Amino acid sequence: xxxxxxxxxxxxxxxxxxxxxxxxxxxxxxxxxxxxxxxxxxxxxxxxxxxxxxxxxxxxxxxxxxxxxxxxxxxxxxxxxxxxxxxxxxxxxxxxxxxxxxxxxxxxxxxxxxxxxxxxxxxxxxxxxxxxxxxxxxxxxxxxxxxxxxxxxxxxxxxxxxxxxxxxxxxxxxxxxxxxxxxxxxxxxxxxxxxxxxxxxxxxxxxxxxxxxxxxxxxxxxxxxxxxxxxxxxxxxxxxxxxxxxxxxxxxxxxxxxxxxxxxxxxxxxxxxxxxxxxx
Length: 280
Prior knowledge:
Elements: E1 2-4, E2 7-9, H1 59-90, E3 108-109, E4 118-119, H2 129-147, H3 151-165, H4 200-212, H5 220-232, H6 236-243, H7 248-260, H8 267-278
Antiparallel strand pairs: 1-2, 3-4
Helix pairs in contact: 2-3, 3-7, 3-8, 4-5, 6-7, 7-8
């Protein structure tokens, strides 16, 4: 029981707080909704000194300290978010998968608008096993981001790309030569090019895409950019087919049947390549 201005108050009673009392020394007791308040200037709580008798903490100072801490936390949070956005949007984020020892440079490009920027440099030599796994990981991340796929669904797509390109080689001609696309664009299953072994008119469109975006046709950036364009337009059915699957193996088969459409699927080989990706 506390006596305030001649009235009796029990702990838990709501006390009014004037602006003047915010700078008075305070005492705290249980109040509903976690409120904290102090008595008016003329309080006479037994055993408590009058405001003039102490230099104790004040409610104003107490809340000011809390506000200062919250403001600092909010500022730091905003800085982290802004820095993350800048890194992703500007290509400053360079994941492990972006290390491309097979290129003549380490240029990175966010031009695809995807989660992981890919190299814009031309491919001049076949990828090592480790580079193949790193590149596959980047493609999986981008496909998940760009098409809202599960990891298994994206991995099924990349298993096909791995199979077609001999391990994620973006500058590979059918037969194994690495570099610029051959001049023969006949659609005769003998002149495929790139990560998906595009032939005929699709091969020509990959080259056109590279030219209009200022990229080398053998670069990972050009290959993924054109792949993304196809999956958003003329080959959107492949994405729908993959999205209907619930396992990486089923996704591999669906993408092969709808997108690649090979005369001989060599499905066992594609499924073996899938394991390389899942274990990367």
